[in-house]
Amino acid sequence: MYSILGRRTARGHRSAVRTGLAAAAAAAVLVVAGCSSTGGAPDSNGGGGGGGTVDTPRKVVAMITHEVPGDTFWDLVRKGAEAAARKDNIELRYSSDPEAPNQANLVQSAIDSKVDGIALTLAKPDAMAPAVKKAVAAGIPVVAFNSGYDAWKAQGVQQYFGQDETIAGEAVGERLGREGAKKVLCVIQEQGQVALESRCAGVRQGFSGTTELLNVNSKDMPSVEATLTAKLQQDPSIDHVVTLGAPIAQTAVQSKGNSGSDATIVTFDTNSALVDLIKNGQVKWAVDQQPYLQGYLAVDSLWLFMSNGDTIGGGNAVLTGPAFIDESNIDSIAEYAKNGTR
């Protein structure tokens, strides 16, 4: 993949530093993954070493996300989390709700059940803050991933795994400019979700042409298709559509066909179906933040902390993306996508 972490922005220095952090995190994963399928026994000093084993004290980790039912992105996150849990002899309690107050209630339930660690997303950080602070006050280690890049430190969260959504959006905008785009439609599938809105804000900052926002409701995909079809019919000057998730990109392909539009479709995030759409040219490229890796690192980092006091990132976010996937590298990703991990 072509990494865009090192792109030249006003925050280029910070981006370069975090590139090193991401590389260090990747190296840590390789070391851990090199252990046997049973995880390997801890060393004689009681250190973490490999994963847990049947005779290692079993820990309970709650993972709480803002997953929308049926979103294939979150299937990848969950698979990564489950892989780490198996390796580390962790009982993973996965739950999700697209509504922030309900997510906060799930955090409170995890606190009440005295879990050993919590991994969560902060799609709407203000609504989550009181519950997160309660977990921290209860002495439960908390890590965040995927959403909440600008909020995790303020809430006392220990570590963060994901991408800087604004930088990712800026890179998308710059690439669209290089490819000759003039008018871009950026489709937000959940209004008020800070990560999604940051992506489109970044696109607008990085793109020298016209960027228009379109809010749709991902809980009603027929409505998404109809709204997008109508917009493309109404405004034939839209030459590129940027979607913020693979299922929305798939729907955009249908809307393009229905409307007779010539717009090029690009997207954030991937799934196995999107791999085929890139291969056949229906989607030109995608921005990958490695959801499987996010889920894996969130759980594995908690195990490393609980078993050996380790933290990853030196107090900074550990970046799992972004990178571009296009026709030049799609074949190398396709095998992993078929396995359900990309």
From TrEMBL:
List localization entries: Cell envelope
Q: Name one GO molecular function term.
A: carbohydrate binding
Q: What is the protein's name according to its record?
A: Putative ABC transporter substrate-binding protein
| UniProt-listed PROSITE patterns | PROKAR_LIPOPROTEIN
Please indicate which superkingdom the organism of origin belongs to.
Answer: Bacteria
Q: Where is the Periplasmic binding protein domain?
A: 68-304
InterPro entries hit by this protein: Bact_Solute-Bind_Prot2, Peripla_BP_I, SBP_2_dom
- Say which family it is in: Belongs to the bacterial solute-binding protein 2 family.
Q: Name one Pfam family in it.
A: Peripla_BP_4
Gene3D superfamilies of this UniProt entry?
A: 3.40.50.2300
What Gene Ontology terms describe where this protein resides (cellular component)?
outer membrane-bounded periplasmic space
Which organism does this sequence originate in?
Answer: Gordonia soli NBRC 108243
Q: What is its main location?
A: other
